[in-house]
Amino acid sequence: MIDDAWIPVLDLEGRHREVSLRGLFEQADEIRMIACELPTQTFAILRLALAVLHRSADGPPSEASWRALWRGRRLPLSDLADYLDEFRDRFDLLHPRHPFYQVAGLRAEKDNAYGLERLIADVPNGMPFLTSRAGPGMESIPPAEAARWLVHCQAYDPAGIKTGALGDPRVKKGKGYSIGVGALGNLGGVYLDGATLLETLLLNLVPIGPLRQPADERDVPVWEREPQSAAEEPGATRGPYGLLSLYTWQSRRIRLFGDAGGITGAMIAIGDRLDRQDRQLLEPMSVWGRSAPREREQKRVPIYLPRPHDHTRALWRGLQTLLPPPVPAASEPPQRLSATVLQWLARLTRDGVVSRDFQVRPHAVSVAYGTQQAVIDEVFSDSLTMNVLLLVEDSALRATAIDATGDAESAVRALRGLATNLVRAAGGPDDNGAADRAAERAYAVLDQVFRNWLAGLGPDSDPTAERADWQQRVWRAVDLIGRELVEAAGPVAWVGRTKLDRNGREIHYSSYQAETWFRRDLAKALPMTITTDQKQEMPA
Questions:
Q1: Which residue of 83, 103, 263, 471 has the fewest C-beta atoms within 10 A of its own C-beta?
Q2: Which of 441, 467, 439 is CA-nearest to residue 453?
């Protein structure tokens, strides 16, 4: 894995190819990004690369040492090469004694035959008709592809009962009972995507300091430790005691079957438990939120847990939960915490290390699991291009961007009201179907509008003028959809009908009345689009 190509990348010329782990670092300034089949696979492999880089950079031990790397836009390639050479045999996928991320000789009480559907996340276990991989493609995969899914499995494997491994005292009647999802399964993953992979690696290489929990001598990556057995690591040696053990956490005990010509199956057993509670100073690549149930149970505050992203809406609509929150005026601990990598970049911006016109792309990744977290339902991935000033807590530009998302929500609420009232005017069912469809359509249009507007904000932007510009863009988009809804309502809605409201009052619903209410609500939602004369003419 050090010298053989297995990591898919996209280079600066837009070409897809595969590189080795060594090549990933040596060509980092020529590579745009790691580009795997799933965004979760990309995230897991990025963290593996960061573990190697952290170890080679010795931390980095201070902010000054990080600044030296950033100013020179360079990686410690000589140290990286020496490090990878030292542990070359531990990165061998098929090593007879210590295969990479696996347990040699792992077996169950009964030597069962295992297929690849246990390893490959986009093949629903027991439902192969839902994947394009069905048939001969599931009989064998190249070792390079198996390596990618191996890293992904340790990170995102679903919960549920696993094969019971011989030698694991937790096994009962041949079954390994659930210890939860893989190491990254509960994270609201966030990483910073730079213009090149070199920038991406450096931006996510948070040095030892106040934003990171200090590590001790026990914090080493898994390949520097003695090969693992089937059993769970004792708490005294398991950790995690720092980033290195966290980034290479072994949630599962795995054994791949096959040879250099192809991998034909995988045995997956339970591995090491990982408690994420209050790990916010250790885990730098997740958003966090306070857990009221645990605070009540443990009778202390605050208690933080990682928060997966909301898969029902685009990242920009939850911008406030992504960015570093303002410092609370009172002593009450904040309800949410942003990812340390974002706090780190905000600090660099305030200190002038990173230019105020620097553009960065926070990239969010998380997984939604199904029944009892035993299946992967959905993979979420989204990113935003923004100026670094938006990460700074006291930035007027940051406040403008957050307020802009509120403008969009308010305008879409007005559109939902129009859709609902048009259905009432036509005598249709009094449910949310039409409103939901109108809102979905509006958000689809506003999605690219917001991304373009956000990417245009910079240190020379006037916050008030930018907010007014945004409200004009929203008004044009939502007004057009509203006009089309009214035109499509039909003659029955034009005539309308009288209905009782929840207070028993008679109200006449018609297309004309619905549009009038819509204009009023849209003006309230987007006040910077309305002139003084227009405000005076608005109905109450």
A1: 83
A2: 467
